[in-house]
TrEMBL record:
Lineage top rank: taxon: Bacteria
Organism: Allocoleopsis franciscana PCC 7113
Signal sequence range: none
Pfam families found in the cross-reference section: XisH (PF08814)
GO molecular function, one term: nucleic acid binding
Protein's UniProt name: XisH protein
Length: 154
C-alpha cells in the first residue's frame, strides 16, 4: 500500500465535518491482476442533510472517491503531472468498476492558491473534467468544491 500524504487525516476530518461517512481508507480498486489504492472512499449520511459532493465517502446515495495530493516535491509541475495521471487513471477504472462513485482530487488551499491559480493550473481545470476538493488545512474544513467543467477534452 502506498505511503499516505501528510494531509491525509486533515482531509478525512474535514469530510467528516461536512457530514460524510468514510467507507474505505484506502478505497481499493481491483482490475485484472492489479490493485490500485485511492486514498479515501466516503458516503453522505442521509440523516445529516448537509449538501456535499465527493471524496472516498458516502452520504445518503452520494458516494465519492478522493485522491489526496500534497504537492510537496521539488517541482510543482512534476507533482501536477503525477496528480493528473493518477486522477485520469482512477477515473477510467471507476468508470469500469464503480460508475456511481464520483472522483475528486483533494488538495490543500495553499496548493490551490499556488499552482492551480497559475495559468497552467487554470488550463488544467479548464480543459480536463477534473473535480477538486480544496481544504483549509489550518481550520480542517472544506473550503471549496470545484465540479468538473463540461468543456473538457478527456
Amino acid at each position: 500500500m502506498p505511503q499516505r500524504d501528510a494531509i491525509h487525516n486533515i482531509i478525512k476530518q474535514a469530510l467528516i465535518k461536512e457530514g460524510w461517512e468514510i467507507t474505505d481508507d484506502p478505497y481499493v480498486i481491483s482490475y485484472g491482476e492489479r490493485f490500485l489504492f485511492i486514498d479515501l472512499a466516503a458516503r453522505l449520511d442521509a440523516l445529516n442533510g448537509i449538501a456535499g459532493r465527493f471524496i472516498g465517502a458516502r452520504r445518503g446515495s452520494s458516494r465519492i472517491a478522493v485522491e489526496i495530493k500534497e504537492f510537496r516535491g521539488n517541482s510543482a509541475i512534476a507533482d501536477l503531472e503525477q496528480a493528473i495521471g493518477q486522477y485520469v487513471l482512477y477515473r477510467l477504472l471507476l468508470e469500469q468498476v464503480d460508475r456511481e462513485r464520483e472522483l475528486y482530487l483533494a488538495v490543500a488551499d495553499t496548493t490551490f492558491d499556488g499552482i492551480f491559480s497559475e495559468p497552467i493550473g487554470d488550463l488544467v481545470m479548464r480543459e480536463l473534467p477534473m473535480k477538486l476538493l480544496i481544504v483549509d488545512v489550518e481550520a480542517v474544513e472544506v473550503k471549496r468544491w470545484i465540479p468538473a467543467r463540461e468543456s473538457g477534452t478527456l
